[in-house]
Amino acid sequence: MKRILFVALVGLMTIATAMAAIDNTPVSMTITLKNDQVVTYSATNMDSVRFVGGRYGDTGAIGMKIYLKGSTQSVDYLYSQVQSVTYDSQPVVSGNVFTRVTSTSQLVAGKRYILVYEETPAVMGAISSTGTSCGLSITGADNFAYTDGIVQLTQSTAVKVLTLGGTSGAWTLSMDGALLNHTGNNNTLTIGDQNSTWTISLGESGNAIITNVHESSYIIQYNKTSGQERFSCYKGSQQPIHLYVEDGSAASTVAAPTFSPAGGTYTSAQNVTISTTTAGATIYYTTDGSTPSSNSAVYSAPIAVSSYTVVKAIAVKDGVSSSVATATYIISAGGNNNVNANWNIAGSGIPTSKGDPSFTNRSTDDYAWRLEYPHINTASGNQRVVKATSAYGITYSLEWDNNKIANRWTCYTMCSKNNAINVDRKNDFKADDAVTVSPCKTYAQSSTYSRGHLCPSGDRLASREQNSQTFYMTNMQPQYQNHNGGVWATLEGYVRNKWQPTNTTDTLYVVKAATIENVTLGNTSSTGIITTTTDDDDHTLVVPKYFYMAFLYYTKSTNSYKAFALWTEHLNGGNPSADTVISNRISIDELERRTGIDFFCNLPDDIEAAVEASATYWDHSSN
Q: In the beta sheet, which residues pair with residue 39?
């Protein structure tokens, strides 16, 4: 799957220790890693760069994401792996042609756009760094040539080109290595990670309505008052703008079909309608899983679906075809086979462990069908453990590696019942007899490493039994206390406090883990382990180099999902803030690429592909 995480254009770069104005895009970059590997990117394969926290050498800088030409996939480098970085550069654009956006189907993550006020005309230039933060307008033939519906940038242009990222309803616009944002309850347009998502629609006259998601009364408009010419966020009374896309002819774009109802699990047969926003397009479809073409059936009436069916469709106009749209329908008389319908399956038959290596994710499995489960590793020596109570259902599940004496992952759900608060923290750390080899309850180097929960005690306070189960050592990883009691605890508290299940947003699926094997960052494989330590029984235990959390959020009222992941390096000091980790959240696709683990694998494939491709986290503002 494609990873769409941070997309940006970066300008003129030299080796520096502080951020500076960026007006050009790098055309070559040489990175020397600490293992002495040298990686070079040239103009033929390098599109843009996004700096996370700053450039190499900056205080608080974390790393960078390099986007490759013709792809929305990034190659990621943590600065902790980097020995040096050098750059060459040239002007960002030369003769590029942009066409007015006339359909929302022309909004495609990874493509480049400019903001235009057509009456003058004016195009957005630099972002002001002092006074009223805004996108300053530029005019004149030195920067661009304008005809109706077409803008051609010149060799010496100062126009700021934006790269679209995210997804519909939560778009991002990036420039100069940072995201375009609105700073709050005032007329601003600047750069930063907060309030940096937007909805984009078209008005009756074709003007672009770019609305800030977090401050929905503010949209990007143009102030044409003499001496104040600028693009900024306003509640109203300013001039509408147009959005232009690079090489984006409206005639060559056909919107992919959409399905109603959306693919998913239903208790009865469904009549599926297919539509496209491209007027005059013909829709072709298949119901056998094959790829549709102009020789496939023509859609003319709702399709009756009464059993498991994969519907695929394309829209074709004037010989131009859309991308293929897919929806999978599962018709189950027993209801939705997921935690939202059947989360409380605890009882006398709940085992504490199943160590059979052949125990895999099958529909007949008592537990592995659950949506919070990653794909189970069937390697020899691995065991799956389920902790549960008769009153509150499954506390959590985990996979244990007896060879490494380490947790591979812990997964659990958060909903109103199992998150009830009835008791205090029990604090009774103990070995776990459910696995073949468990750490004892104390580490020999207890002054160095604390026992870091994966399923937190604070999320399991419904009963003494439930809370006590979180203190099994199989639910722990050795952690520096600066990390465990710092950014990790803050992130856990953030999730606990911000996630408030309701009748319509009822379940959060969580996977928490640390790296016990090699990881892939960018195109580089590196160790996922810092060192080893021991417990008081002289077991050798691995100390992970990275910790992460994966979330899948379900909204029952719309039968829809969102997902994202958080990633932190395990440091004994100088950990980033929780806000920084959240703002640098990654997609599940990216987490899978780094860890090699398939998360939320029990979702229908089309839903999994959609929700795992972007780092869309829950909107907790209404909870």
A: 31
- Cβ neighbourhood burial of 128 (10 Å; 0-12, 13-18, 19+): middle
- Tokens representing 401 are 């590696």
| DSSP states of 229-276 | -EEEEESSSSB-BEEEEET--GGG--PPPEEESPSEEESS-EEEEEE-
Cα–Cα distance, 605 to 264 (Å, whole number): 10
pTM above 0.70, yes or no: no
- The answer to whether the beta carbons of residues 513 and 453 sit under 8 Å apart is no
Best mean pLDDT range from 165-174, 357-366, 380-389: 165-174
- Residue 346 to residue 388: CA distance in whole angstroms: 6
pLDDT of residue 425 exceeding 70: yes
**Whether the bond into 121 is cis, omega within 30 of 0:** yes
Between the CA atoms of 251, 252, 255 and 256, what dihedral angle is there, to the nearest 10 degrees? Answer: 160
Helix orientation angle between 605-612 and 588-595, rounded to the nearest 10 degrees = 90
pLDDT tens per residue across span 313-354: 888 876 667 777 888 776 654 433 333 222 222 222 233 333
Locate 512 and state its tokens.
């928490």
Residue 471 confidence class, pLDDT cut points 50, 70, 90: very high
Counting beta carbons within 10 angstroms of the beta carbon of residue 142, is it exposed (0 to 12), middle (13 to 18) or buried (19 or more)?
Answer: exposed
